[in-house]
TrEMBL record:
It comes from the Eukaryota. Gene3D superfamilies: ARM repeat, domain 1, Winged helix-like DNA-binding domain superfamily/Winged helix DNA-binding domain. This is Eukaryotic translation initiation factor 3 subunit K. Component of the eukaryotic translation initiation factor 3 (eIF-3) complex, which is involved in protein synthesis of a specialized repertoire of mRNAs and, together with other initiation factors, stimulates binding of mRNA and methionyl-tRNAi to the 40S ribosome. The eIF-3 complex specifically targets and initiates translation of a subset of mRNAs involved in cell proliferation. The gene is 105621154. GO terms for cellular component: eukaryotic 43S preinitiation complex; eukaryotic 48S preinitiation complex; eukaryotic translation initiation factor 3 complex. GO terms for molecular function: ribosome binding; RNA binding; translation initiation factor activity.
Amino acid sequence: MAEAMRQTVAGMLKGIERYNPDNLTTLEKYVEIQSRENAYDLEANLAVLKLYQLNPHRFNMDITCQILLKALTNLPHTDFVLCKCLLSEKLMSESPINQIMYLGDILERCDFQHFWDRVLSMSELCDRIVGFQDSIRKFVCHVVGITFQTIDRALLAQLLGGVDDATLKHWVKKYGWKEETKTIIFVANQDENIKTKNITEKIDFENVAGLMAACL
């Protein structure tokens, strides 16, 4: 259903029609479909927030929260920042939007253990987004992959949200990591990821002639 809606919505986002408030009902329905079916359409979601900005009397807190949580699932991309730019400071200070803002701050700091604790206290909000936790785990694995060479097995399980052994093995296999020992997981040889770059500068005499003359 999400794919069928995507084509319909794409037509609504062309030209001046993008700012037609009559499209909000359809666009809001599309946001809810994304949440239920683990789909994602940033352009459509930004259009919803823009329409709320232009038509504040049509603002829907529930839809806005879903859009923000969906944006978090696409980290490390900057979708969440783009969404924040379409919200006023007043709105961002209101609950439960302020709670989602805090989640974004925690993820930006890569304080994953604290993040999972907060998610537990917001389960009613986060559980509406199908695939939310696994999407965040992808981001965790991305950060681990560019940060660690080896990582303690127990620490990785905590970073992934206190997952059980079977789930931990799933993510280790998914990213091609290897269990070196019963307690240590080999992630990557970070030295191999360092790429040297030769920089050659070409300066013509004409470019420095004026400077040399000024020094005389």
